[in-house]
Amino acid sequence: MLAIIIYAFGVMYSPGPANMLALLAGVNGQGWRAFLYCVGVGLAMLILFLLIGYLGGDIIPLKYQSIIAILGGIYIAYLGVKILKASFQQAEVRSQDKAVSFKTGLILQLCNPKSLVAIVPIVSVQFPRFHIEGSQIAVWSLGLAVMACGAPSTYLLAGSQLKKAAMNPKIMAWVNRIMALLLFYVAYRFIFA
Q1: What is the Cα–Cα distance from 160 to 171, expressed in whole angstroms?
Q2: DSSP letter at 168?
Q3: pTM to 2 decimal places
């Protein structure tokens, strides 16, 4: 079950559109006024986890779950490689003055393809592997949604407290490298566990 948490952490806390918007909101001084944006992201993930969690187990037969696990592991490793490669490319993060809101977070995360990258492997492979079903799906979905809310919240806090460091491409490169290593570990667990 630790694999679920590590995978969710690696995907949810790596830089993506929702997290970068929160980071920029923190840098621009929106601070905790933008926290509702993070709650919107968390609610969107809860909706998607519950929807796919309850439908996913019935849609994918047990005999195909190991094939999906291998393909999922390969895809996760691919994401790790992309994040690792990106960490060696110099990129400048630009600050933009954009106010974020609950609605922004909710809609952005419902439409964010990264949401499905996080959710589908968890509910279609890991939930069945660990016999998470029935009301346990709701409990895990809530916990994972709280983690999802925590990701942009962490970036928001980092942006407001560490403006120079959060905008430093070298620091973000090391964050990406750590996230890539976590994804490699999870890919290994997907394929060989």
Answers
A1: 16
A2: -
A3: 0.72
Q: Cβ distance 65 to 169 under 8 Å?
A: no
**Cβ within 8 Å of residue 29, ≥6 positions away:** 160
What are 128-183's pLDDT values in tens digits? 889 999 999 999 999 999 999 999 999 999 888 877 776 677 877 887 788 778 77
The CA-atom distances, in angstroms, between 65 and each of 85, 112, 126, 135 are: 30, 24, 9, 21
Give the phi and the psi of residue 15 in degrees, each rounded to 5: -60, 135
Residues with Cβ within 8 Å of residue 184, at least 6 apart in sequence: 77, 80
CA distances from 25 to 12, 80, 82, 90, 157 (A): 18, 26, 26, 22, 9
Lookup: tokens for 1: 């079950």
